[in-house]
Amino acid sequence: MGSYTFSPKPYNDVADTTFGPIEKYIPANDNVPQDESGASAGFAVGGERGQYIGLRRGSGEHVVPPRPAWPERRGDFLQTYRGGKFWPIDPRSEEVFIEDIAHSLSLQCRYAGHCHRFYSVAEHSVLMARHLRWEGMDVALWALLHDASEAYLVDVPRPLKRHLPGYKEAEAKVMAAVCERFSLEKEMPAVVHDADTRIIGDELVNMAPMDWHDRYAGQELGVTLRYWSPAKAETEFLATFEALMECRARGMA
């Protein structure tokens, strides 16, 4: 099985590995299989034999199904790819998982889908991380995860995002949880912010020509879009993450 590595020598830009089996990660929250009293056993959820949802057979007595013992949190939760729960308005770092981030971002297209070919947020993030690898492992990891909040809040285009103060507040909280989870500084490095703007110049090749594109002429980051499929983008995202985490573990700056 191949892997993506960061080293002083040239390397292949294609990886054939995934981050590993999901089972090695601790399940988020209280996600456990239903016991035999559940619907999967042929009975009403939370009920007994001979009992239907909301009505006890033959008695006419209304039965209120028991409420799940979920923790008190702000807002509601969304179900993640792994089968976990994540509260976008009340995020916690222990509920952030790299598999959820990689999978979700690999399925989201940049520019709200207004481009010639599918180009995912995951690929965008990988291209930035690999371009900035010589700035240090923490900077490269920040670049890889700079849009991680969009795995839980979806990718909102810049022209709309600046008019959604509620979204910006939620985004800041989710990114704080992401940074805590992966031991990153809370403030995005300036070089990552700059690269996130300059890469637009490279990505315009995937859009219909318009006059506003001229502002990015000569400011491109210098990356080449690969137009990976969602599955490929997810694999490359996880491989890049693993390589960066391994370098950090070895003490590489």
Automatic annotation (TrEMBL):
It comes from the Bacteria. This is Phosphohydrolase.
